[in-house]
Structures are given as C-alpha cells and as structure tokens.
C-alpha cells in the first residue's frame, strides 16, 4: 500500500465490477470517486463487460481497464494494481464473485487484485433475493466479514424482474460513504479495517428535529444529519450494529443500519428512552430543539388582514433534554456509554470552548464533542472538533472530513465502552 491517504482525494481506488445488471449504477460511483479527486482504476470481470463495456469505464476513470491476468504481463499488472491500491471497492459484488473472493480464487484480474491487496475491501452486493438468502451466500458473507472485509447489506426493493426484496445494489451515494469510512478507519495488522466495534450496538441520533406550530409550519434547524451519518458508516465498517434515529434526514440509509425516522424532539426522546437499555452506546449527534410550541394549532395560523403590523404571539415551552435525561436514567450503570455534541458560538465575553467545558460538566455524558460553529458548519463536508471528557478535559482533537471526525469520536468511545462480560 502507498502512504495511506485517509480521504478519497488523492487515494488510489480500485473499483471492481461484477457481472450483474446493476453494473450500470457503478458508473455513478466511479464519477463520484473521480469527482472527489480519487485516482480510479476500474477492473471489470469478463462477464460484467456483457452489461457495461470497457469504453464506459475508460472514459469515466481516464485509465485503460484490465480484465484478464494476461494483459500487461510485462508490468505484472495482476499484482501491481492490488499492491498499489489504497482501497478496493467492488460493485456489484455478485453471488459468484462473493464465492470466488471467499475461497481466494485468482482467475481474473479482479479476484487476483483482491487477493494481493492489503487495503480495505468494500463489497457492495447485488443479486436476486434467493441468491442473497442462500446458505452458501450467507456463509460466504459471514466468512468475508469475519476476515475484516466490509460487505454492505444490499438495499431492499424492486429487483430486475417483477420481484422485490433484499438484493438491490446500495445507492452509489451510500457506497461512496462506506468507501470513505473504510479508507479512514483504523487498520489491523494486515492493513484491513480494525473491527474494534464488533459485537457492539450503537444508537446514533442524527439530523434536526421539527416542532410543528400548525399544520403547515414548524420550527427547525440547519442540521443536515451528515455528521450522524458519517458516524453510522464509520461504526458499521468497524463492525458495530447501528441503529439510526433520523430526524428529518434526506440521505440514503447506510447499508446495514436499522433506521427509525422521527420528526419532533418529543418523538426522538421517546425513541431514545425505549432503546437506551438495549445498546452499548448512545451517540447524540442530532440537533434537538430546546423549545417547542406550547400548543400546536390544529388550524393554520392566519394573519390579521385588517392590521398589517400585527403578528401572532408564539408561546413556547422547553423540550426534554434527552442527553441529560439519558445520563440520569443510566444511573450508576456503565452501560450505555453516552456521547453528546455541543455546537457553540461563544459570546458575551465567554469563549466557545469555555461554554463547552461547562456543558461537559453539566450534562455528565462520558464524552462531549465540541465544535465551534461561529464560522458555520451545517451541511458542510468538513468539521473541526475537540473531544472533552465529563470533567471538561480535552481527550483528543480532530479536523477534516466528517468521516475523520467520526472515527476520532469512535476512537475515544471505544476506550470508554464497558468491558464485554
Ligand atoms: N440535546 C438533547 N436534548 C435537547 C437538546 C439537546 O439531548 N433537548 C443534546 C444534543 O443532541 C447534543 C447536546 O445535547 O448532543 C448539546 O446540545 P446543545 O443544543 O448544544 O446544548 P443545550 O444543552 O441545548 O444548550 P444551549 O442550546 O443552551 O447551548
């Protein structure tokens, strides 16, 4: 492997394409990777060329494609591409390809490269439901996952024929997120992703709550859910089971996450209270409204046509502080570990960091991830945080993509998870 870039910009990504109809969607994935500055080599299986031809991959990746181990033999291409890759992504990973990867075949350029590489391997399966559910495939997936390969769960929905079920290729955006998460994850001794969250279950809240004022209006905030999503993807590649409580998030569900959608702060509070006792960690990345309407109007609030200066009085009341309430209901138990977030701007002579330190001590969560939002981070791809413990002391810092921040938060969390009995 090269000098291990942790983001897609400048990373050498080998994209394997299996022989399935979903190969056409991989064109969007390649575009996305190239758009982020990755140097992409597409390695299609011979069968996949029946679906999408080499010209498409060469045009999108700006590189010649290699399919057989007998091409470019003078350059020892069948080992070179695998050795040079920082990340290998296979989409679609057919049932046949999963079987060949599991037993270590090297009968085409893709499987040979996958056998050589020491980089993280992300497989995005697509096949008919019967094939995905077949004991052979179940076993192949289990073995590959045990070895540290990221095998995404296929999406559920309409398949090529009239049937529907699990087996659709995850959307390119979700594969791209998983690729980012794998690339920046901590590594095991062989260079694969260190699965330090295996056997753990996390509840991650994401997005921003909406408080209805009347049937058409609500109070909301700018949270996009991207940081919570990055945490979910990062936790999944590190082996965790992930429950995502999504408050008004318009993003593709991370493959393998169990998603519940909520609207208001009260709905989120109810969900967290119901699931808190079932998880190893709660990560409160959602931006939860602190105030909600004291009484939601059943009818649309009308303006007074006769008085152009009149405005309705909005009566608000406080919502439950879910983070603090979770810490209280956990009591003396060490489970679950609890992580809060604090977005601060500072003001009136108090620095943002001091407000965050005070908040860390007040809320009592095991970790508080502080970011200074004076410059505005909502919806942006990058973030800069300091991770504080419950005494307000700095544990670590992270800057860069939300994926990098997510891994830094998980690093701090792993150290605080109660021992598995
Ligand atoms: N939070 C929560 N329930 C609320 C409000 C916030 O659980 N009703 C959580 C957020 O998910 C976040 C943390 O508390 O993890 C900090 O949220 P923030 O809004 O920054 O802090 P507040 O306590 O609301 O303080 P303030 O808005 O006054 O800064």
UniProtKB/TrEMBL annotation:
It comes from Candidatus Brachybacterium intestinipullorum. In the C-terminal section; belongs to the PPC synthetase family. Its EC number is 4.1.1.36, 6.3.2.5. Pathway: Cofactor biosynthesis; coenzyme A biosynthesis; CoA from (R)-pantothenate: step 3/5; Cofactor biosynthesis; coenzyme A biosynthesis; CoA from (R)-pantothenate: step 2/5. One of its GO terms (cellular component) is phosphopantothenoylcysteine decarboxylase complex. Its cofactor is Mg(2+); FMN. It comes from the Bacteria. Binds 1 FMN per subunit. Coiled coil: none annotated. Residues 198-414 form the DNA/pantothenate metabolism flavoprotein C-terminal domain. The gene is coaBC. The keyword Ligase applies. Residues 1-201 are annotated as: Phosphopantothenoylcysteine decarboxylase. SUPFAM superfamilies: CoaB-like, Homo-oligomeric flavin-containing Cys decarboxylases, HFCD. Residues 202-421 are annotated as: Phosphopantothenate--cysteine ligase. Pfam families: DFP (PF04127), Flavoprotein (PF02441). This is Coenzyme A biosynthesis bifunctional protein CoaBC. The keyword Signal does not apply. It catalyses: N-[(R)-4-phosphopantothenoyl]-L-cysteine + H(+) = (R)-4'-phosphopantetheine + CO2; (R)-4'-phosphopantothenate + L-cysteine + CTP = N-[(R)-4-phosphopantothenoyl]-L-cysteine + CMP + diphosphate + H(+).
């Amino acid at each position: 492997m090269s000098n291990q870039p942790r983001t897609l910009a400048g990373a050498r990504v080998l994209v394997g394409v299996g022989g399935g109809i979903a190969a056409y969607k991989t064109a969007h994935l390649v575009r996305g990777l190239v758009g982020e500055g990755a140097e992409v080599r597409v390695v299609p299986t011979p069968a996949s060329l029946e679906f999408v031809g080499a010209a498409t991959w060469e045009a999108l990746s700006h590189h010649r494609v290699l399919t057989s181990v007998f091409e470019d033999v003078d350059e020892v291409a069948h080992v070179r591409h695998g050795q040079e890759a920082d990340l290998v992504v296979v989409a679609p990973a057919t049932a046949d390809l999963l079987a060949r990867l599991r037993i270590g075949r090297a009968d085409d350029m893709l499987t040979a490269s996958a056998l050589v590489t020491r980089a993280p391997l992300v497989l995005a399966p697509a096949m008919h439901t019967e094939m995905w559910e077949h004991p052979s495939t179940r076993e192949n997936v289990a073995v590959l996952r045990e070895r540290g390969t990221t095998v995404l769960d296929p999406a559920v929905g309409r398949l090529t024929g009239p049937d529907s079920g699990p087996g659709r290729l995850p959307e390119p955006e979700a594969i791209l997120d998983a690729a980012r998460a794998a690339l920046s994850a901590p590594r095991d001794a062989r260079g694969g992703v260190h699965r330090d969250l295996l056997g753990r279950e996390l509840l991650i809240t994401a997005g921003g709550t909406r408080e209805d004022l009347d049937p058409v209006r609500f109070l909301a905030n700018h949270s996009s859910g991207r940081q919570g999503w990055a945490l979910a993807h990062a936790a999944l590649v590190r082996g965790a089971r992930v429950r995502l409580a999504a408050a008004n998030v318009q993003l593709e569900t991370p493959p393998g996450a169990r998603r519940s959608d909520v609207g208001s702060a009260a709905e989120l509070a109810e969900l967290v209270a119901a699931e808190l006792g079932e998880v190893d960690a709660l990560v409160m990345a959602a931006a939860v409204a602190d105030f909600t309407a004291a009484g939601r109007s059943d009818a649309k609030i009308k303006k007074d046509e006769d008085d152009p200066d009149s405005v309705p009085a909005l009566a608000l009341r406080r919502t439950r502080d879910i983070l603090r309430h979770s810490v209280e209901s956990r009591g003396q138990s060490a489970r679950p570990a609890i992580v809060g977030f604090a977005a601060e701007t500072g003001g009136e002579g108090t620095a943002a960091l001091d407000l965050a330190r005070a908040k860390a001590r007040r809320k009592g969560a095991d970790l508080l991830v502080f970011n200074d939002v004076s410059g505005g981070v909502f919806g942006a791809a990058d973030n800069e945080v300091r991770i504080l413990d419950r005494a307000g002391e700095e544990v670590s810092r992270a800057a860069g993509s939300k994926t990098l921040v997510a891994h830094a938060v998980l690093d701090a969390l792993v150290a605080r998870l109660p021992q598995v009995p």
